[in-house]
Amino acid sequence: MAGRIPPEFIDALLARTDIVDLIHSRVPLRKAGKDYQACCPFHDERTPSFTVSREKQFYHCFGCGAHGTAIGFLMEYERLGFLDAVEDLARQAGMEVPSGGETGQAGPDLRPVYDLLEQVAILYRTQLKRHPSAPRAVEYLRGRGLTGEVAAAFGLGYAPPGWDFLLTSLGSDAEQRERLVQCGLLIEQEGKRYDRFRDRIIFPIRDRRGRVVGFGGRTLGEGKPKYLNSPETPVFHKGRELYGLFEALQAHKAPERLLVVEGYLDVIALAQLGVSYGVATLGTATTADHLQRLLRCTSELVFCFDGDRAGRAAAWKALETTLPLATGRQQIGFLFLPEGEDPDSLIRREGKDAFEQRVRKAAPLSEYLFDQLGSQVAMDSLDGRARLAELAKPLLERVPVGLFRDMLQGRLAAMVGVAPTRIAGGGPRPARPLAPARGSQPLTPLRLAIALLVQYPALGAHVATGSTDWRELERPGIGLLAELLDLIGAYPEITTAALIERWRGSESASHLARLADPALLRHIPEDGRAAELVGALERLGAERRDAEARRLFERSSPAQWTEEEKRRIRQEGLKPPD
Ligand SMILES: [Zn+2]
User: Fold this and answer.
1) CA distance 183 to 215
2) What values do phi and psi take at 474, rounded to 5?
C-alpha cells in the first residue's frame, strides 16, 4: 500500500484530478470514441496507441505497455518520486497532503533540509535591507538596473562579510550545524567551520516547485570566483535545476516558450523587462536532464548564446545534447546575440519588443544544424556534398525515429542530391522493448474477474449479494479478488486509478496493473460485462465445490466426515468426482 499517506487521501486526490487534463497539458490528446489518444510519450511511434480513459482515470499504451494513474503518469513523465507527484497534484487540486505522508517516501526525510534552506534564504534577504555592509550590494544591483520589485520577486539577498554569520545565526544546536554543512552553507576544514558565502549578493535557487534548494553568490569585491554556487547536496543537483524555471512557471502556467540564457542576472533583467520566460543553467552546460525538464514545460525552447567563439562552441554542444530529444513535437531554436552583448545588456538597450523579435527569428534546430555542417564543406562540389552526408548521418541517427527524423533525412538528401532512401538507415530502435503479443492465452476465470473489477469497479455491485463460495478457494489471487470486491463494496464510486493506487508498492501491484490492460477485455461488449463477471465467479465457485468434493470423497471416507461436512455435502449437493 502507498506509503503512509492515508489511502482515503489518495482517493480524494484522484477524484479531484482529471487525468485527461493533466496529460493533455503535456501531451496533446485527441478524442477517440470515449477515450483520448496521442502518440506515446514513452516510446517512439507514428500512429497513436497511447490511450487515456477519463472514466477509469487511467492511461495505457498498446504499443509499449506503459500504463498508470495520474500519479503514475507524473512519476514517469516528470521523473518525480511518489510523494513529489502526490504533492504536485495536491497543490493543483488545492489540497494539503496530510502530515503522515511526510516520510512516506523511501529514503531520508529531507524536509528539515528544505526548511533550513528556506530559513537561510529569508535571513539573507533581510540582510540585504539591514546589514551595515549591504548598501554596497544594493548599489551594485541598482547599477545593473534592477528594481527593488524584481529583486524581491527573485528573493535576492546578501551574505554579510565575516566567517560566521550563519554559524552564529542558525548554528545554535549540533543537529542544525550538521545540516548547514550538509547543505554546503558551512565549509568544514581542519575541524573548523565557516560560512561559504561571505560578502556576496545571494541568488536563491528554487526547484520547479518553488523550494529553495541552493544558492548562487556574486562577489562584490575582487573575491574569486565571481560567481559561487552551492555544492551538490542531497537536494541540489546542478545538472537538473534551472534558475528561473519556477518563476517562469509562476508567470505562465504553461509557458509557450522558454529561453535558455547564461546568467542569473540575464534571467532577472529579462523578467524585469517583461520577458518572464528566461531560465539559466547553474554554471554548467545544458544537460539532457535539463532539456527533458524544459521540453516538458513548453512547446518552444530557444537557446540564447553569445555570438563569440565560446558561444558558438556552447551552441554546438547544446545541439548535440538536444538531438536525442528532438522529436519535432517542440520547436527548438538557436539565437546568437551580437558580439559583446548578453541578454541583460541587449534587452535594456533595445527594449522588449526588439528583443523578442530576435527570439522569434531564432534559427530552427534543422537550419542551425545544416548551416553549421554546410559551412564546413564546399557545397558546390560533389566531394563536399558527400562529406556533408558523412558528417550529418551520425548526427541524424541520434534523433528519435519518427517524422522529424524522416524530414531531416529528407532535407539532407535534397541538399546532397540523392534519393532519401540513401540517407535513411540505422533502422528503427524502439525506446523500450515492445510488450509481448497478447491474446495468446485466454483469461482464467480468476484473471477475468479481477480484470473486470479493476477496469470497471462499478460491476462490483452486480455480485455484491451473489454466492461467496469462491472465497474459500485456495489459490493465489483469490485473496486479491476478495479484497478488491470488499474495497469496491466500501467505496462504490472508486475508480480504476484509485484501486491501482491502493495496491501501489504491494506484491499484487504489477499483477493488478497488467490486468488493467483494456486489450484484455476488448472482446466483451459493454452490456455483457456484468454477466461475464457473474459467470467467472460462478465458475470459481464450482471449482471450489469440485475441490471440496475431491477432498471429501477421495481423501477421506464417510465415516470420517464431521457434522459440518455432512451438512455441506447435503446443502451444496457435492457428489463424488467422476
Ligand atoms: Zn508507448
Assistant:
1) 10
2) -90, 100
Spatial strand order of the sheet with 258-261 comes to 278-280, 258-261, 300-305, 331-336, 363-364
Query: How far does residue 235's CA lie from ligand 1's centre (Å)?
Result: 31
Distance (angstroms) between ligand 1 centre and the Cα of 41 equals: 7
The model scores a pTM over 0.85: no
Contacts of 113 (CB under 8 A, 6+ apart): 179, 182, 183, 233, 234, 235
List the beta bridge partners of residue 357.
none
Distance CA 30, CA 24 (A): 9
Q: What is the per-residue pLDDT across 292-347, written as a single tens digit (0 to 9) for each?
A: 888 878 889 999 998 888 889 999 999 999 998 888 888 999 999 998 899 999 99
How far is the C-alpha of 371 from the C-alpha of 367, rounded, in Å?
A: 6
Q: What is the DSSP string of 273-310?
A: TT-TTEEE-SSSPPPHHHHHHHHHH-SEEEEEE-SSHH
Specify the 3-state DSSP secondary structure of 51: strand
pLDDT per position as a tens digit, 7-66? 889 999 999 999 999 999 888 999 999 899 999 988 888 889 999 999 999 999 988 888
User: Residue with C-alpha cell 521540453?
Assistant: 295
Report the separation in Å between the CA atom of 20 and the middle of ligand 1, taken as the mean of its atom positions: 16
